Amino acid sequence: MKLSKKVESMQFSPIRRFNPFGFKAEADGKKVYHLNIGQPDVETPECFMDAIRAYDKKVIAYAESGGINDLRDAVCDYFKGYNMDFAPEDIMVTTGGSEALNMTFLTILNEGEEVLIPEPFYTNYHTFATAAGGKVVPITTKTEDGYHYADKDQIESCITPKTRAICCLNPGNPTGTVLTLDEMKLICEIAKKHDLWIIADEVYREFVYDGREMASFGMLPEYSDRVIIIDSVSKRYSACGARIGFAICKNKEFNSGMMKIAQGRLCVSTIDQVGAAALFRMPKSYYDEVKAEYCGRRDVVYEELMKIPGVVCQKPGGAFYLTAKLPVDDVEDFLMFLLTEFDDHGETVMFAPAAGFYATPGLGKNEMRIAYVLNQKDMKRGTELIKLGLEAYNKKLGK
Amino acid sequence: MKLSKKVESMQFSPIRRFNPFGFKAEADGKKVYHLNIGQPDVETPECFMDAIRAYDKKVIAYAESGGINDLRDAVCDYFKGYNMDFAPEDIMVTTGGSEALNMTFLTILNEGEEVLIPEPFYTNYHTFATAAGGKVVPITTKTEDGYHYADKDQIESCITPKTRAICCLNPGNPTGTVLTLDEMKLICEIAKKHDLWIIADEVYREFVYDGREMASFGMLPEYSDRVIIIDSVSKRYSACGARIGFAICKNKEFNSGMMKIAQGRLCVSTIDQVGAAALFRMPKSYYDEVKAEYCGRRDVVYEELMKIPGVVCQKPGGAFYLTAKLPVDDVEDFLMFLLTEFDDHGETVMFAPAAGFYATPGLGKNEMRIAYVLNQKDMKRGTELIKLGLEAYNKKLGK
C-alpha cells in the first residue's frame, strides 16, 4: 500500500528524535534536565478549569464553526486592551495555533507556491506548508547577528514569482529573536510591494524582555488586508493541552475561505473554548507576572552560558527559547555523549540540536536550542551540566 | 490578495445555506422543527463531565501526539468487546472524526488521485479530499434501491488508474443505509483486486436496527492491511462538541505517515480525551438504550412519511438519517415555501435538501434528508408539517 508523496516528504519531529536515549538514561537512574521541550512547568491559571467545571449544559453540542461568541468577544477585548481593533468575525477559533497555520496555508498556497520563513524556524511549519502543497523557502539568519532577518535586501533576494507569503514567528522559536514595530513595518512594506501575505505567528507576543514594549503586526492597520495573525492560548496561559488557537484577519475574502475549511471540520472543542474565554478575561497583570518569571529564567541561562568558553549567543529578547553555537563540530554527537556516557553526580542534560530547525542542509550542526521552561534553579543546573559535559567531551576527544 | 484554487473549489456547508431563512421564520414568531441538522438532543452521559471535573493536574500540558494512553486503552477494550483485536499503537486519536478523515486523505492521496464515495454522501468528504489535493468520484445510488451500492460491477466501473481508495460511511449519512458483513467482504475483495485502501467511516456503528447485528470492517482481519476505520465519540455518545475521533489501522506504514502529521499538530485536547476515556468505559447496555431511542424515532418518521402520497423511501437500517424523494420538482423551492410562506398553527419545519449531498450535478433535486435527532413527538409533528406543507405547496402551484 503506497502513501502520498506529501507525507513521505514530511519528517518526524526532530526534537523528539533523541527522546528514546533520554528515557534510557532515566531508566538507568540518571536525572535528566529537560531543556529540550517547549512544555512550560508554569501552572495553568485556575480560572480555566473553574470555568469548565461550572459548565452545566446537558448536551456537549457542536459549537459554531468560527468559535463560540463568548470566546471571540473575549479575544476582541484582549486586543482592545492593546489598542487593536478586531471584530468577532475577524477571529477564527482553531484547534491550537497548529490548525490556524494549517488552514491558513491551505487557504493561500497553491501547489508549488512558496512561503518565506527565517531559518532556523519552528519545524512544524514545514509539515503545514507541505500538507497544503506549498514549499518553505528559508531566509537564512546567523547566530552572530542574533538571528535577525529584517533586512530588505536579504528578504527580497528570496522572493520569486512563486512567493505568496512571508511568515514571521515573533518572538521567535527557536531563536527568541524579537522584531521591533519599525522592523514589522519594513516587512509589511516589502509584502505590499510584492503583493504577499504576512503570516504573523505571535503566540509568544507577551513574552518580551528588557523594557521592550509588546508589539504586534496588528498595530499596523494600513496593512491589515494582508496580515494574518496566528495566536494561541498554549504558551501565553501555559495551557498547551487546551488546543485553542486563532487565525485573526481583517481580509473578508481570506476569512470566507477559512470558513469553508472550518465548516468542513465542524467546530473546535466546546469545553476548551469555555475555559479559554475565562483565560482571556484575566487582568493584564497576569502577563507581567509570567513575563517576569521567564525573564528571570532567561537571565540565569544566559549568564551560565556565558561562562562556557567558545559559546556564541546574543541575549534573546523574547519567547522562552535561546539558540547558541557550542564549541563542538557536531552538536548531535555531543548530545549523544551527554545522554549515554556523561553524568555529574548522577545528573545530565538534554537540549534540542538546532540542525532540525534549518531548511538548508548542513546549517546548524554546531548549534543547540534551549527552552527555558523550568524553574531558575533547574535551568542553572541544566546549563552548568552543558558546561561540565563539554569539558568531559573535549577530554574524551583529546582536546 | 488571491486565495488558493483548492479553497476556491470548496463549498460552504449546503446544510447551513437555509439557516438564515429558518432564523428569520423564528424571528417572525414561527416555531420551526429542525429536522435539518445532525446535532442530537440526547444527553451526553454524565461520566464525560464527571471525569473532566475530577481532572486535577496543575498544568494542562500537551498530550502524546497519538493520544493519551488511557483513552487508547479504553478504545482497544471497546473493540475487544466486539471480538476485534487492536493494539494501542493502532489507535490514532484525532480532533473529531473530521481530523481523522483529513489526515487519512493527506496520507494516502497524491494530487489528482481519486477516492470513490457512494453518493449521496456526507458533504464534508469533498472538503477533506480537496484539501489533500484529491478528487471525489461518486458511485451513484438510487432511492428506489434504498441507496445500496455494494455492487461489484457498479463499483468497478468507477475505478480508474488514479483510484486510491473506496470510502464507505456505514451506516450512511444522509441515507441511513447499512452494509452487511458479506457486502463489506465484497468491497474488501474489490479493494484487494485493485490495490485500494478502504476508508471505513463507522461513526454510527452501534446505530443499526431491526435485529441487524453491529458489523465492522474491523471484523475482516484478512484485509486489515488496507482498512482504515474512522471513529468518533460525537454521535455514539452524543458528544459532538467533544471533538474526539480516531483513525484505526493495522498497517504500520500508514500509521507512521499519520504520526508525522500528528506530531506536526502536536496533540488533541487533553481534557476532551480524559472525558472520552470515561465514555468508552461505559457498559454496552448504554448503546442498547440509545439505539432503542433512535429506532423509535425512525419508526415514527417513516410511518408519517408513508402517509404522504408520492413519497419514495425505503426504511433506513441505521444511523439517524433518512433520505426520501418528495413529489415536487425542486425540493429547495419547497423548503423556501415552508420557511417563508407556510405555517400550520404558527409552526413549520426545516429539512436538508439532498442535492448538496450529490457530486453529480442535477441529482437529488427532489430529495430531502431528515435527521431524526429530536424526540418522537417532535419528529412526528415535524413530519406531519412536511405533509401539510406539501398540500399547501401544491395548492399554491395549482396542482
TrEMBL record, chains A, B:
**InterPro entries in alphabetical order:** Aminotransferase_I/II_large, AspAT/PAT-like, NHTrfase_class1_PyrdxlP-BS, PyrdxlP-dep_Trfase, PyrdxlP-dep_Trfase_major, PyrdxlP-dep_Trfase_small
The coenzyme or cofactor needed here is: pyridoxal 5'-phosphate
What EC designation does it have?
Answer: 2.6.1.-
List the molecular function annotations (GO) for this entry. Answer: pyridoxal phosphate binding; transaminase activity
Swiss-Prot/TrEMBL keywords? Aminotransferase, Pyridoxal phosphate, Transferase
Keyword Transferase included in the entry's annotation: yes
Entry-linked Pfam families? Aminotran_1_2
Superkingdom of origin: Bacteria
Which family does the record claim for this protein? Belongs to the class-I pyridoxal-phosphate-dependent aminotransferase family.
Q: Per its UniProt record, what PANTHER family does this chain match?
A: ASPARTATE AMINOTRANSFERASE (PTHR46383)
Q: What is this protein called?
A: Aminotransferase
* Originating species: Aminicella lysinilytica
